[in-house]
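Long-time lurker. I teach an intro course on protein structure, and each term I like to show students one example going from raw sequence to a predicted 3D structure in token notation. This year I'd like something fresh instead of my usual example. Would anyone be willing to generate the tokens for the chain below so I can use it in lecture? Attribution to the forum is fine with me.
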Amino acid sequence: MEGVTIVDHPLVQHKLTLIRDKTISTKSFRELLKEIGMLLCYEVTRDLPLTDVEVETPLAHMKSAKIAGKKLVFVPVLRAGVTFVDGMLDLVPTARVAHIGLYREPHSFVAVEYFFKSPSDLQERLAIVVSPVVATANTAVAAVDRLKERGAKDIRMVCLLAAPEGVERFRGLHPDVRFWTAGIDEGLDANAYILPGLGDAGDRAYGTR
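-- Reply from a regular --
Happy to contribute to a lecture. Here you go:
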């Protein structure tokens, strides 16, 4: 699908299999979520612009590549998106972090917003929306809608796992937002959970029900 990248790196796929296992502990789920976040961060930032700068090594003067001043903001969708983004912050500790609190109404599956906080200069930053799963895409679409309302112009979406229905809906409503994921599963069940999926990422990350 145009604009969609499935990250098939062996380490990503290995950890995705581990995190699917219903028998792993809450601690292990969080650790894997953070590790996969770090690995996906490599991919979603692969094309950041570089510029040559002059540096002095212990032995010589040289020119070397450095990120060309691109300012980033990671935008985790609460709850489990916070753990997911922790791995990304290990790689890009200077990035700002916005937070979007959204939950899916259990009957209509409509996204309900309860919290939003972001830097004031969104229009100057590359905003990377981070959500563990994109099922119906209602929360992902709502997150991007909110960022655009606040002036964000350069937005990317990254998730651990997606359903084909969700990817199609997201791309249909936001064709300008590129999409990265570790996998696209078979589809959704009657309760709009991804099959075979990995369950509720928030509950599994924090031991709630």
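Some talking points for your students: The chain is about 35% helix and 30% strand. The chain has one domain: 4-44+72-206.
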